[in-house]
Amino acid sequence: MRFFTMSKLTPKLLPGLALVIGSLSYSTASAQQTAAQTWVKICSKIGETDICNVKFDVITNTGQLVTGVNLLQSKGQTNRRIFQVAVPSGRYIPEGIKVQIDNGNTNTLPYSLCLPDRCLAEIQLSEGLVNALKAGGELTLTSTNFRAVKNPVKVTLKGFTAAFDGPPLKRNEVEDRQKQLEAELQKKAKETADKLKAAQDAAKSGN
User: Fold this and answer.
1) For residues 162 and 21, what is the distance between their CA atoms, to the nearest angstrom?
2) What tens digit of pLDDT does each residue of 23-74 get?
3) How many CB atoms lie within 10 A of CB 33?
4) What is the spatial order of strands in the sheet that 138-144 belongs to?
5) DSSP of 95-158
6) Distance between CA atoms of 203 and 197, rounded to whole angstroms?
7) Phi then psi dihedrals of residue 60, to 5 deg
8) What domains are defined for the chain?
9) 16 has a pLDDT exceeding 90
């Protein structure tokens, strides 16, 4: 069953969408993600347009974003619905991003724009895709790098429906989540540094 149609979009983001998504940092590091990531909805008003983004970010333990999923909806002066996936640069463009929900059919998301630090693939967000995401358990996103190596990333769909249908996070909730994530990343960075030091000390003592 196909859950979206390949409706072409103009290869540019909605005005102000970068403010909703935030400043993104990408790396080709291994996709070792933190446990704190969940689906969230963040809304903002840009001029006469209300923009909401239901998003999930897969990040490494060092805070680098490996894959970002964004369901963007704008109402007002600009009315659009976009399903967007962001991956690191250095992708093999003709392959696009393969999208699969659970064990269903694999669909291809075409790239619309590549920047020095990331590539974006996007299509029109349809009700069929939204319903498929709500009914699914896991989303698999596979991009292919310039070495022809496939990089599958799995995203849980647990919590998607609540985020999509529920109210957006309040400003203080967004700030609290960011502080919590930063604290967790600092803790993991210290644990990694401690393990490295212990390994170095053990190597020195063995000489």
Assistant:
1) 19
2) 333 333 333 444 447 899 999 888 888 999 999 998 877 767 789 999 999 9
3) 18
4) 106-109, 97-101, 138-144, 150-156
5) G-EEEEETTS-EEEEPEEEEETTEEEEEEE--HHHHHHHHH-SEEEEEEEBTTS-EEEEEEE-T
6) 10
7) -85, 170
8) 17-195 (2.60.40.1880)
9) no
